[in-house]
Amino acid sequence: MLDAYLYELSWMFAALFLGVAMGTLTGIIPGFHVNNVALILLALAPALLSIGIPLSAVAGIIVSTGTVHTFLNYIPSALMGAPDADQALSLLPGHRMLLSGNAARGVAWSARGSQLGLFLSLPLIVLARIAFGPELGWYEDLRTMLPFILLTISLLLLATETTRLDWPKWLQITTGGKFGTDSRLAGFFSATAFFLLTGLFGWTIIGPHSLPARSPLDMPGASLLLPSLAGLFGIANLLDIYATTSHLPPQKENWDLPPVRPLLVPCFWSGVAGASMGVLPGMTASQATVLVMGGRNVAAKMQGKQGFGMDWETRRLTELSDDELLEIAKAEADEGVEGPQTKQDLEIIAILSAVNTAVTVCVLGFLYIIGRSRSGATLALKAMYPVDTWSSLEPTADFIRLLAITLAAGLMAMPIMRYVGKGMLRLHAAIPLQQMIMSVILFVAALVFVSTGFIGLAVLIVGTMLGLLPPRLGIRRSHAMGVILVPITYLLFENLVDNAGFL
Length: 503
Known about the structure:
It is a single chain. The longest helix has 35 residues. By secondary structure, the chain is mainly α. Helices cover 72% and strands 1% of the residues. It is built from 20 helices and two strands. The protein is globular. About 3% of the residues have low confidence. The protein has one domain.
């Protein structure tokens, strides 16, 4: 009996350490997702089983890899300009930290946010078990509300656009100037048009007749979502920085973790959003982020405050363009002062990281609560062996084991972020900024080609061209999340109508 226990424990530790190493690797490689690792391990599962490695250890490797990945993937997004889908919205705040000499603080706040997202999601799993378990069975009712939830999230994303833009001359002449020369309404219309344009782009990627994605090397899990998001958020932003910035300021060695108390409430709501996205099909950390930031804005409005917007708190800041905000960041670095923008960016980074990690933990919980996979990693777990759902009062032994590995991996990821962040900043110091930018662009392009072929490169180019539009229109780049939200919302509404017998 004791021998069997020690055998199982030894494989748990082996899975933990191997998963931490793999999660560190995937986290710092731009565009490489934990889903790729999960699918590769799924394909290798029979061979691993034949040499004596139990499937429970392979499952442990998958969950520990995914957990560490959510901690580390902030670094290539902020310090290299190459975000994945889960960190796309953190790109601009992270770069402002880099340009103001506060990159180390950005990494520290991201680590704290991920840590809080990890632990605050645990009680939410218990609540989800009560709500969606066999006793109450709310899951089916929630599924019918999904399209309306997504539509609400999309409207929140657009409603938080506060930029005042000029009306077209022809409209001013036609209306006799009744609308004035500029208006927030013009900014809203511009944001909506761009949102729908990226949605049309997304339809070619994840729609029912989407473009085929195939790796020249037959890599598993080929998806055009990688090149589309890399173009919209990553390379487009890198090109803007290449054109406007020639050097980086010296970075302050401030790696101290921020206090927990100020971040407790926003990170808790991030966990709630992460749990919501974890139970709903087709949802990711990106949509959860939009939900959290939009909800914060609505709450501020209800309290009679100006509101936070999607990226910044004060009216003064929301009226500035991304380029102007970057100039403020560089001026702060030159003058050695810290403005309100820095505080706001740090809080946003923590919230985004909390959402990202909470989604990873919650999708594992929902796999055992409702028996449905919500990510590539949980899909691999479900395909690997039968999942014993949590139907009784006590959770299953398999779930407890994987949850313990998840928590341990998260704790180990905290110091790893610091060492990896230091290494990345030394790399920035050794290589001129513009050379670094071109190297990252070429690396991302090569990664896109290896994983998705020439079609992926074409999607990358189109995504980059679209991603260059927001700063020139005067709207936020976060509206490019329409690439995911629009096609998924349409498909869900179509399915809802079809179920009603109208199609």
